[in-house]
Each structure stands twice: as C-alpha cells, then as structure tokens.
Design brief:
With 241 residues, the protein is α/β, with parallel strands linked by helices. It contains 10 helices and 8 strands.
Length: 241
C-alpha cells in the first residue's frame, strides 16, 4: 500500500457552524487526557468522546482474530468485517464491536500497543473520522485523542495540547494498570520504553501525526494536579465562548 497517499485528504470536509461547542484535547499517552476530558465534560454537561477507545475497540477485534497489528494489508482487508458502535451508559462511554460490549477489554498493554500500530493506517483513521465529526456536529463535546485539533475538528471552539515528561507518564500508567489489576507482567521500565516508542510512532507517522495545532493552548501536566489543568482549560474555554 502506498503510505504516501493520505486518504484523510479525500475524506476532508468543511466543518460548518452547527452552533455546537467542541473542546479538542490532544496529547500523547499518559498526560491525563482521559481523566481531564471526562471531568470537563461532566462539569460543562457536554458529551465526552474518547477517540482512543475507538481505535482500541478495533484493536480488540484484531487481537482476538489473531491478526497482527503490524500487518497493514490484513488489518485493512478485515476492516469491513467490523461493526463499531458507541453508547453512553450513565455517563460512561461503551464500545460495541459486532454487537458485543468490549469496554472492559480496552485498557491492557497488548491492546494499547495494537491500537497505536493500527492508528497509523489511513484506512482505519478514515473509518473513524466521519463518525467522530458527526457526533461533534450534533452535540456539545469534549473529545480527546492525538489529532482532534489538527484533523478531526480543525474548527474546534478550543484546542488544548497536553504534555508531560515520559517518566512521569510511565509512573501514571503503571499506577493505573496496577489499580485495574491489568499489569500483566509489565514493569515501570517496560511501560516507559513503550511510551517512548509510541511517541515516536505517533509523531512520525505520515498520516495525522501527533502535534499541537497552531492555535492550541499547550499545557505541561508533569507537575500539575488534574484540578489545575482543568482550571486552565476551562478558563481558556470561557474566553473562547
């Protein structure tokens, strides 16, 4: 497959003024995007959309089918077999793959790795792009991911890009997995190495690389509490609105 061809270009469309408010929160793994985005959505009574969970849900399918995430040809070949749906139950986003709720299977290191790999493929990103945009056209949303402000919602009301030192992010991820009982033999060192590899993969991919939008508010969360980061984002949002 020619990776120099960006299928997102063919999927681009102008995001019209639908009257909705959208908050795009981007950044690498372990910066606190999910916790912060979910909390802001709750405070503002907006819909929270975890785009990473969409890629993870697809990854669950491939892992269960025994299809290597690194095999782009096979990943794309089997993509039409996947029926993907998203439902919100009591404020929690649930991912449904071919009629089965896979939400409880999304947060393992194996799925994280597979999701990071398949997210490089243009066909996979295009599959999810319109789904994400359609939601933002009809709902006030807080959407987090890696290319929300640059590709998915380039006209978002507010764009925030979160960063943090790799070791700090690894410690956060380790504690999260430990609390969930999903370490599966992972160590702090292996998690930090995986984070650095994912950072490189995400920032160097040819399609929708990880980078802050030109007009994004950039926040280093390394030494900030969740509340302090929230306050910065909510303050910036008030200025935009």
């Amino acid at each position: 497959m020619n990776k120099n061809t960006d299928p997102l270009q063919s999927a681009e469309k102008s995001i019209g003024n639908s009257g909705t408010v959208s908050v795009a929160i981007d950044g690498p793994s372990g910066v606190g995007k999910t916790s912060i985005a979910r909390s802001i959505a709750e405070k503002r009574h907006y819909l929270y959309i975890d785009t990473g969970a969409m890629f993870r849900a697809l990854a669950v399918y491939y892992v269960k089918k025994g299809i290597p995430a690194e095999d782009e040809e096979q990943v794309i070949l089997h993509l039409p077999e996947i029926s993907l749906d998203m439902k919100h139950k009591e404020g929690t986003q649930h991912m449904i793959v071919n009629g089965t709720d896979v939400t409880d299977e999304l947060r393992t290191e194996m799925i994280s790795h597979a999701a990071s790999v398949i997210s490089q493929y243009g066909a996979v990103r295009t599959r999810l792009l319109e789904m994400q945009r359609m939601i933002a056209e009809t709902e006030n949303v807080v959407m987090d991911g890696r290319d929300i402000g640059t590709v998915v919602l380039p006209k978002a009301t507010l764009k925030a890009f979160l960063t943090a030192r790799p070791h700090v992010r690894a410690e956060r991820r380790y504690r999260q997995l430990e609390a969930l009982g999903k370490l599966d033999g992972a160590t702090l060192e292996s998690i930090e190495k995986d984070i650095e590899e994912r950072d490189y993969r995400d920032s160097h991919r040819e399609i929708a690389p990880l980078k802050p939008a030109d007009d994004a508010v950039i926040i280093d969360t390394s030494d900030l509490t969740i509340g302090e980061v929230e306050a910065k984002i909510l303050g910036a949002l008030e200025e935009r609105i």
